[in-house]
């Protein structure tokens, strides 16, 4: 009888790189994943919508039951189910099934890459079983360059680990990652920087529009996984550098800087874990402040930084926007959109749960106390979350936008970034025009804008008139009679000035005053993407 000298169950591999960057082996893995149709749609089809929904809530039992039922029906799991069980659900799988699911790479190849590890307890066993050391998931998106499917490796999540995350955890693609990648501007540039790259997802997106990308992280492990992901998805032109914040790019400037930085506000006391993936080790929102303050020194003229961040509302400075404005270099255009505000209490709960600590436990209450003490000591009442866009102006900055838009986004098929890019271009176009020049322009209404009128019963005149944007931020605007009429008449054939003149006569008001009002209003609607500039 053969005696297998496998390591004891669940013994971890000796410390070393997170994964091996063995390009031929990675190519074999890619071929196996493609052959197994390892896609999100196929996985959802495998276990059905209920189990898919449960997985999003970190509950894997319905998916495991669906796979067990499949095995009972068909007698064998199939490659897709094996890959799902290993890489998404944290299961142990017999080696023969791994071999069947990864025919080109093989079980030993997957172990050598650092993806799998023997997990058998038995010393006398006909075959060993394997488990995943890393998560490996399909990821799909659509941007202005088309639809793409990738596979992303990261550290095992809470679901597969069955417990809280390690402090050096390398995050996979989460909600914040998707938010940032969707709002990324997509116009072609020479250079991009992804600060705090993690699994490399933003750098990979940036490589679609930037000639070269530098991806940095304070975690060597993250950089290894990011390089592996770029190789797995055949993405070239990304350079990975180790170091904190802008240190690895000292003295360098980029056309586009993207960052989903570790912005989570964390109390600096013993016993509170400091997760590398979300916490930059500074007090309060100082990390967001530091990135915003240093941005101008790392942008080319016209270059844009886009990041996500949290900011504190304090008793001393009740409006967080006052603090944000204080962090900005005068040479910057800025457009900061706050998407939500949480009370300090809710914020603490959210992030304690995110680390895998369940409420109702002693650990949870201890952490909760530490968070509330920190907020109380520093007078923090609320925490805002939002999008920051900073642009180094080549002349005098013309854009200073701080907005609270707490409602759902519109429908942005190619991502919000396309809308942001169009708004910036429209802004630059009108900002370069004097009022006299602008009055000569023939504008059009964006195709996603609809008009909504409300009437009191029996009354012919509307009591309220609203413009609703279908895409972008899904803004609803109450423009007033004259500006609504200007929008209605903006079909590209009449100039702003001509419409203003006709309206002044119709409404019997002072023409100069109305013209000034409408020029200002039309400029604001161009900034919001509701009116469009003349086609070049
Ligand atoms: C929230 S994760 C973002 C990961 C990825 N960019 C994304 O969008 O999903 C933040 C990343 O910043 C890294 N990080 C933490 N402190 C850092 C620092 N001081 N300088 C650079 N990166 C840091 C973490 O290791 C982590 O990978």
The coarse silhouette is globular
Radius of gyration: 27 Å
User: What ligands are attached or bound here?
Assistant: S-adenosylmethionine
The overall strand count is 18
Explain what you see.
Residues 1-9 have low confidence and may be disordered. It contains 19 helices and 18 strands. Helix content is 38%, strand content 23%. Strand 9, helix 11 (286-294) and strand 10 form a beta-alpha-beta unit. Strands 8-7-6-9-10-12-11-13 form an eight-stranded mixed β-sheet. A three-stranded antiparallel β-sheet has the order 1-3-2. Strands 15-16-17 form a three-stranded antiparallel β-sheet, with no helix packed on it. It is globular, with a radius of gyration of 27 Å. With 536 residues, the protein is α/β, with parallel strands linked by helices. The structure holds S-adenosylmethionine (SAM). S-adenosylmethionine is lined by residues 171, 177, 180, 196-198, 201-202, 216-219, 222, 244-245, 260-262, 276-278, 280. S-adenosylmethionine (SAM) binds at residues 171, 177, 180, 196-198, 201-202, 216-219, 222, 244-245, 260-262, 276-278, 280.
List keywords for this structure.
536 residues, alpha/beta, eight-stranded mixed beta sheet, three-stranded antiparallel beta sheet, 19 helices, 23% strand, disordered N terminus, binds S-adenosylmethionine
Give the secondary structure arrangement, pairings included.
Layout: H1 23-35, H2 40-56, H3 61-74, H4 79-87, E1 93-94, H5 95-101, H6 106-113, E2 116-118, E3 129-132, E4 134-143, E5 146-155, H7 158-161, H8 175-183, E6 189-195, H9 201-206, E7 210-217, H10 220-232, E8 238-242, E9 254-259, H11 286-294, E10 299-314, H12 320-326, E11 332-343, H13 344-354, H14 362-377, E12 380-392, E13 400-404, H15 416-431, H16 435-439, E14 444-445, E15 449-455, E16 462-469, E17 476-477, H17 481-489, H18 496-507, H19 511-527, E18 531-532
Parallel strand pairs: 6-7, 6-9, 7-8, 9-10, 11-13
Antiparallel strand pairs: 1-3, 2-3, 4-5, 10-12, 11-12, 14-18, 15-16, 16-17
Helix pairs in contact: 2-3, 4-5, 13-14, 17-18, 17-19, 18-19
The chain binds S-adenosylmethionine (SAM).
